[in-house]
């Protein structure tokens, strides 16, 4: 399951429903952007260590650049197929 920054922030702030949902997932994936946002938000080495431990606890991984590109292309195809706007080529 691809998880956005907001979900992890809600969990960090003690949202029980978010914590339960995360714990119910067999595996989570973060985009490289989400991982960078989370790292930028840590204030010290201990918080970074805690973040890494949490990612391991959830069986998490960080999506590769190739995986991110594939997701963008897949989503773009879905948007085009449903009559939505075509994604900008700069996103590819």
Task: Describe the SSE topology.
Elements: H1 5-12, H2 16-24, E1 29-30, H3 32-41, H4 45-57, E2 61-62, H5 65-81
Parallel strand pairs: 1-2
Helix pairs in contact: 1-2
How would you describe this structure to a colleague?
The protein is mainly alpha-helical and 92 residues long. The chain is globular and about 45 Å long. The two termini are 22 Å apart. The chain has helices spanning 5-12, 16-24, 32-41, 45-57, 65-81; strands at 29-30, 61-62.
How helical, in percent, are the residues? 55-70%
Number of domains: 1
Distance between the terminal alpha carbons, to the nearest Å?
22 Å
Shape: globular
How much strand? under 5%
Q: Please, what is the average pLDDT?
A: 84
Oligomerization state: single chain
Q: Uncertain segments of ≥5 residues (pLDDT<50)?
A: none
Name the strands of the widest sheet in spatial order: 1-2
Compute the CA-based radius of gyration.
15 Å
What is the N-to-C succession of helices and strands?
Answer: HHEHHEH
Largest sheet: 2 strands, parallel
Number of strands: 2
Instruction: Tally the helices.
Output: 5
Instruction: Briefly note the structural class of the backbone.
Output: mainly alpha
């Amino acid at each position: 399951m691809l998880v956005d920054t907001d979900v992890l922030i809600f969990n960090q702030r003690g949202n029980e429903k978010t914590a339960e949902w995360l714990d119910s997932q067999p595996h989570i994936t973060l985009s490289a952007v989400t991982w960078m946002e989370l790292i930028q938000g840590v204030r010290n080495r201990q918080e970074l260590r805690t973040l890494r431990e949490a990612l391991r606890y959830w069986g998490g991984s960080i999506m590769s650049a190739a995986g991110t590109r594939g997701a963008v292309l897949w989503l773009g195809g879905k948007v085009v197929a449903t009559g939505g706007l075509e994604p900008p080529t700069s996103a590819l």
